[in-house]
Design goal:
heterodimer, A: about 190 residues, alpha/beta, 5 helices, about 50% helix, flat, B: about 325 residues, mainly alpha
Amino acid sequence: MKRTFLGFAVVLFLASLAIADVPRPDKPNKPDKSIDTSMTIRLDRNAHDARLIIPRAQIQQLRAQLDEIGGSDDSAAATGTFTRTQTIVSGTLLSLAFVFGGMWFAKSGRAGSKGITAAVMILTLGSIATLVLGNAGPPPEARSITGKMFSDSVHMYKFGSGAIKLEVSDTEQMPELIVPDPPKTASE
Amino acid sequence: MQRVDDLSLPAISSANLLIAGFVLCCALAAMLIGAFPLQLSILTVFLFAGVHNLMEFRYFVARMPIRWGRSRTYYLVAIFGVIVLTAAYLTLYFSSGNWIWSSDNYAPLILTWNSAFIFWIGALLYLRGKQKSGDWGWAIPLMLFLAAAAWAAPQYWSLSLVYIHPLVALWFLERQIRRTKPEWLRAYHLCLASIPAFLILIWIFAAGQPNLTDETRLFWRIAQHSGSEILPGISSHLLVATHVFLESIHYFAWILLVPLVDRRAIPWRLNEIPMFSKGNGIRKIFAAFCVVAVGVVVALWLGFAVDYTTTRDVYFAFAIGHVLAEFPFLVKMI
């Protein structure tokens, strides 16, 4: 036991010696990943798809900005790659947890108790509710980029999303978002 | 006619005093911390961080038997785990520059460390289960579930340790009260029940507050430690206040409440420590350790006085050692 304590003390002492000279971390500077510009949003009755047109000059400006920042793209890519590994490992561990948990539960002989039955029922109902609510979403107007996005009924969601075509233009001076604005039907 | 004795006020029990003192202290702390989270963070760490570590060290040493007997493997695994995991943590921490919160490049190493930590606790539970009768089969699925969570969301996992660690002291205290002061148990449970109420009050007050300033490196570090970069949607005022409040209770428990319920944890009663008082103990080594530990506390105060920010960084890096050291004793008390 004396040896264990002495060993512990020596390790701590050496660790402090080794670490004493390491420089302290500084607050990282967050470089600006944006450029200042203006944008036009135009409702177009003849347009079929939403299109975001970005002037080539501004794309180049943004690319230069990103190049200056450097490594962040690599780390983002690394994270993306690792996420798959994380998903696989965490999924495997979770499955094993359920398998071992189930085995323990069955072996412990508690499967028949009222409390456990109630808990299982609540969990099952909760899972079903999650499945049902998980598919519920905002109305179609908020899930497609059209002129209807500007209506009051969509404003309450504070957001909207939908498919869009990104284009680069040599002629445009500023970014332009063209939003299809189909004429109202009789039912509307 | 009533006797004079009957008219006198009912005697106030020590348990009632505990409730009154605890609630009063929590109310005062919640008010001050809610209003001045950064200032109180600096002050509490300066005053209590080193002292509470000393008290924890003192408490654990008092609980450590001289002869490990059947627990030999358990203590060897425990000490090995504390040393290796602490060394690995420090290496990662200083090589990546505050590793928990940044550096995606270190993600695989962080995940490996988290897994090793969880499986080390699993090994302790397994060894403890072998010593005690009863069904310990729940430990395996629980550890696997925690490991899955740590892999799925490593940053949230690390942040959860920051917030859960202060509560571990309250668990220790509960187990200790059961052993040495059972008449306080009910009162203590009432005290514990009051903590969520104070937290809710802090959240109600702080939720609408703007983010705390992160102009200086110290303020940024305090906010970052509380998870402001992991939870950007939540006011850093709320996060820092919550963390400081929990940490303050943690310090309060170790410095004041644990010695109140356990005679062996009173700092100057060294004869209550088997390692020091028994003939086959390690008296000299223990005395040297105590002197070094007191020296470290004084050095921390000096360090805080000279360069608070750097000392704080170094302290919280090494603090992982005491976080890890808690687990073997906690598992031993289950």
